[in-house]
Amino acid sequence: VLAAMAAADNPIATFDTTMGKFTAEIYLDRVPRTASNFIDLAKSGFYDGIHFHRVIPGFMNQFGCPYAKDPKSPRAGTGGPADGTFKNLKTGATETRKKGGNIEDENISRDTNAPFTLSMANTGRPNSGGSQFFINVANNANLDWFSPGPSKHPVFGKVLSGMDVVTAISKVKTKRDNPVNPIKMNSIIVEGAPHPDEL
User: Fold this and answer.
1) What confidence tens digit (pLDDT) does each residue in 27-83 have?
2) 66 exposed, middle or buried (CB, 10 Å; 0-12, 13-18, 19+)?
3) How far is Cα of residue 142 from the mean position of the Cα atoms in its chain?
4) Do the beta carbons of residue 138 and residue 115 sit within 8 Å?
5) H helix and E strand count, the chain
6) Active-site hit among 143, 156, 160, 178
7) What is the pLDDT of residues 124-174, one digit of tens each?
8) Does the annotation count 118 as an active-site position?
């Protein structure tokens, strides 16, 4: 059923958190570099055991910083993956993570930061996105890369099921936007993605 809701060939990711599960279509067809980066990190287990470090009701849930394996780390929100390479699962090209695990911005698909979309986090500078992303729980069109403001965040997926879990995460009690009771990502399982060796 979920695959029918997604584009025919797009992968589906299942996010298993300590507050429940949700699934999302990953837009490999629209933003292949960004989607392939996420899929590579998820399949390597990079995200397993990381906590949501910033949640704001009526705005978004942010996740993916390796320092947030410690839910109370003061460095949570500042980390990324190691420099290296990964395969673009649409084109077969070798993509690079550099200068702190960052990938090149992929501002090519005009998908708005609508409720329940997944979007790349960054530092505000070009080409500064790595492993961190956020799930919108409101219409945040001001964050679109094609909006006039300074924030440029490309969308790379959309939640298909478990919207109630995503919303509940956004409403937990926080201290300086960090959940008082830590919310951990147990695992992210991606299905339907091409294998890098087949490209």
Assistant:
1) 999 999 999 999 999 999 999 999 999 999 999 999 999 999 999 999 999 999 999
2) buried
3) 18
4) yes
5) 3, 12
6) 143
7) 999 999 999 999 999 999 999 999 988 999 999 999 999 999 999 999 999
8) no
Name the active-site residue from 54, 97, 140, 178: 54
- List of long-range contacts for 45-49, beta carbons under 8 Å, 24+ apart: 45/187, 46/81, 46/131, 47/131, 47/185, 47/187, 47/188, 48/185, 48/186, 48/187, 48/188, 49/184, 49/185, 49/186
133 catalytic? Reply is no
The yes-or-no answer on residue 54 being catalytic is: yes
Going by C-alpha positions, the residue among 128, 170, 188, 178 that lies closest to residue 153 is 128
pTM value? 0.95
Annotation marks residue 59 as catalytic: yes
The question of whether 33 is a catalytic residue gets the answer no
Which listed residue (37, 61, 102, 122) is catalytic?
122
One-character DSSP codes across 152-195: ---EEEEEEE-HHHHHHHHTS-EETTEESS--BEEEEEEESPPP
Question: What kind and span of H or E run contains 5?
Answer: helix 2-5
Catalytic, out of 10, 41, 153, 160:
153
Q: Which tokens belong to 86?
A: 């990964």
Catalytic residue at 122?
yes
**Helical residues (DSSP H) of 9-162, grouped into ranges:** 32-43
Are 172 and 180 spatial neighbours (Cβ–Cβ below 8 Å)?
yes
